[in-house]
Specification:
Blueprint: H1 2-42, E1 46-51, E2 54-63, H2 64-75, E3 78-80, E4 87-96, H3 97-105, E5 109-114, E6 120-127, H4 157-164, E7 169-170, H5 173-179, E8 183-184, H6 186-195, H7 199-215, H8 217-228, H9 232-243, H10 247-257, H11 261-281
Parallel strand pairs: 3-6
Antiparallel strand pairs: 1-2, 2-4, 5-6, 7-8
Length: about 290
């Protein structure tokens, strides 16, 4: 009888140990699952892909400087200048590079430098509008409205933002071959007109941009309202900052190729400011 009780007691002890082992295994498995889920939640999303001059990103509170560094790595382009300190959260796919950078950089201005065959050579960060703080995060997948009649502000950055809000325009011939596209944004045309290594391509880019402005009466009015509200010296500084040593050439194309007399007059005045600044101190094309 005593032996039977001892045996039953031993069986109970073994059962308890097995239940404890199973419970510990379950607790350990749950802890591992919860730990993995927490790690996945905490890990910031970071996808930066550059193909055919378009950008695909998936970002969650990533410093914009890190995003630009990754863009430079995947595109082979040089990143010049310093980005404003901000974190970006955005998700979009195959957005033209100039539009994508406007979303990511907020109010900070920039210029894209292309080489032969439309290959991206550099991204030049130019700084944002004066006295305007950068937005805390980038906004993705939100269509920017066309600005037909902007309120004059005297802010040179308004010119860049105005063109960034417009739809692409058709391009053809050598310009289309150089860019590898059939339509181009005004930002692409501006960058190509300032930075492409082929002088003929630069001239074609400016001509295409002017034709796009002159085809749309509302856009033409908006451009004139915007540039006329800005001091010639300020516009000259902006163009020199974007185009460097080619600033005079760029404004010469605008002044001679534009069919709108008001735009020709404004471009001629800005061209004179650029020439005066060039004689006084030269250009900073870095």
């Amino acid at each position: 009888m005593k032996r039977l009780r001892l045996r039953e007691r031993a069986i109970k002890l073994v059962g308890m140990e097995r239940r404890r082992a199973r419970s510990s295994a379950v607790v350990l498995a749950l802890a591992m699952l919860l730990g993995t889920a927490a790690a996945e939640d905490e890990a910031p999303a970071r996808v930066v892909r550059y193909e055919n001059d378009a950008l695909t990103v998936k970002l969650a509170k990533v410093p914009v400087s890190d995003v630009l560094a990754e863009l430079g790595r995947v595109s082979g382009a040089e990143i010049r200048g310093q980005a404003n300190a901000r974190d970006v959260s955005a998700e979009f796919e195959a957005v033209p590079l100039s539009d994508a950078l406007h979303r990511l950089l907020g109010d900070q201005n920039f210029a894209l430098v292309y080489g032969d065959g439309g290959k991206l050579k550099a991204v030049k960060l130019l700084g944002g509008p004066q006295n305007q703080p950068a937005a805390p995060t980038a906004t993705a997948n939100v269509a920017r409205p066309v600005v037909p009649t902007p309120t004059p502000t005297g802010d040179p950055g308004m010119v860049v933002r105005l063109f960034a809000s417009q739809s692409p325009v058709p391009v053809s011939g050598r310009l289309a071959q150089a860019l590898g596209v059939e339509t181009a944004t005004f930002q692409q045309l501006m960058d190509t007109g300032m930075h492409h290594e082929d002088a003929g391509i630069r001239a074609e880019a400016v001509r295409a941009g002017l034709q796009g402005i002159e085809r749309d009466a509302n856009l033409r009015t908006a451009v004139l309202n915007t540039v006329n509200a800005i001091d010639d010296a300020q516009l000259g500084d902006m163009v020199r900052g974007m185009a460097g040593e080619r600033a005079e050439e760029f404004m010469m194309h605008v002044a001679t190729q534009s069919r709108a007399s008001e735009l020709r007059i404004k471009a001629s005045s800005v061209l004179q400011q650029i020439r005066n600044a060039g004689r006084a101190g030269g250009y900073d094309s870095s």
